Amino acid sequence: MTKKQKRRRRRVIARILLVVIFGGAVWLAVRGVSGLIAARQAPAVPEQTQEAAEDTAASAQQPVFTEPEQSAPAPYEKGAEITEKDGVTYLTLNGYTMLYVNKQYSVPRDYGGGIDAEAGAAVQRLYDAAAADGLTIYTVSGYRSYDTQKSIYENYVATKGQAYTDTISAKPGTSEHQTGLAFDVGAGSDTSTVLSQRFANTPEYAWLQEHMAEYGFILRYPDGKTDWTGYAYEPWHIRYVGPELAQYIRSTGLCVEELAQA
User: CA-CA distance, 251 to 119, in Å (whole number)?
Assistant: First the structure.
């Protein structure tokens, strides 16, 4: 190769290097400008302190608790008090007092003498209210003397036996009927429901369940309470205790003997 050819070759290589160097510089400049523009357009992200990060992590791990609702006090929280005066037992529930008669607590042989005046007026109002709703409720049995109850009880024992009789009839002196505060009631003209658990299937019984407490009456021997009362279910036997106490007893869903143990 001549000297002239060598000089020409060197000039070509030099030109190629200049192009490469210049092109690289331009590429780097463009990249730098693009990065600067992107940095300016990106939203600012606040720096999170270590304390804030710990609080965030703790919040994510801990369950959210709400303030528990305060439960209503038991309706019989005042308890029960049993007292005795002149051979008669009284039960006080929630501040209201009723004459208390059952298999354990009796009344004297000469106690009573007829339907209690207040109870009699209340049961009549109950009958009138039922009649206004197109229903007929009436008294099958009200007051019974000691001697009358004795005769009924002894007749049952003779025909039904002692054990069975004690689930359906009170021994003399332990019957609520002697107090003049209890009523066995019937419905309409269907005699098949008289003193029968079929009474519970009548519209009159449904009405009693809804309204009798308003007039001061409770169902004394409810269904499913035989272990407490000692008597079989008597849907026809209502007992006057006064409107306030009747509505209180109804609100508990308990029978009198259960409340007496509170």
Answer: 21
